[in-house]
Amino acid sequence: MLETSARLLRLLSLLQAHREWSGADLADRLGVTPRTVRRDVDRLRDLGYPVDASPGTGGGYRLGAGAELPPLLLDDDEAVAVAVGLRTAAGQGIEGIGETSVRALAKLEQVLPSRLRRRVSALNAVTVPMLRARQGAAVDPALLTELAHACRDSEVLRFAYLDHNGTATRRTVEPHRLVCTEHRWYLVAWDVERAGWRTFRSDRITPKPPHGPRFAPRTPPADDLAAYVSQGVSTQVYAARAVLTLHTSAERAAEVIGPSVGVLEAVDDSRCVLSTGAPNLDVLVIHVMLLGVDFEVVEPPELTDRIRTVRDRLSRALAAGGGPVTPTDDGDPVRKP
Question: How far separated are the first and last CA of the chain, in Å rounded?
Fold first, then answer.
């Protein structure tokens, strides 16, 4: 009986870790016959686990959706990750999830072994979250779940979308992945009608079911989807774009430049390259000056011209404040005695 119970737990763990298993693969993993696998699947069903089975050579077993949520198996690291994630979820810009997270965390910590409870408590005790959702960017958790399911199941998705100008469009896409930043969630998907990869802000998506059919997943637009989305939302969507060499390390620059502001690439220990954008060159000049580090403009040359214009304007403003001012070779105004 003990051996059977242990095998059931192992079977459940396999079903949770993989989307679908063939009977032969499960039998091989568990060291039993396919007939024993079928009996064990029936036992899991009796315990309330919704195990679906599809016949044929391409069929197999998978955990489905049931009327109630059955117990889940989590290893130590997964349990700690869930507990910490629930604590910080309220600051991730997901609408209405704060109270739900607290209730779920209370239930989880109640059954955590003492060794794991100490790990979670220690991390919580020394962590002060400083995350705050941007106004108007909250996302309904049900929407994220719907998008995630479409990505997981490779199911065509239909939705209404508001672009950054507020223009409403209808989209039919093959969803690939959800990418989240500190404040926002983005959907990376192949736009069927436009025949290209696109990035969509989740808070601007209104699903228009029914979805489907299934599709064969395409090769993603980049190996690093986080960098791909960062490039899109920080640079490509803007009319004015620039590439700058910053006289500081990429690690230091990343402390003030988030992925939605620009893309950083290390050159050496004291320099990095920033690719960024803005609605126009004037805004771009202000954006660059507020970084607080020395820099060189790589492109476009128009940005250098605009910086000179701003430098001359500031020099005239200082001169008007009392006494003549002449710019030095590096552009810093120096008042004449």
Answer: 96
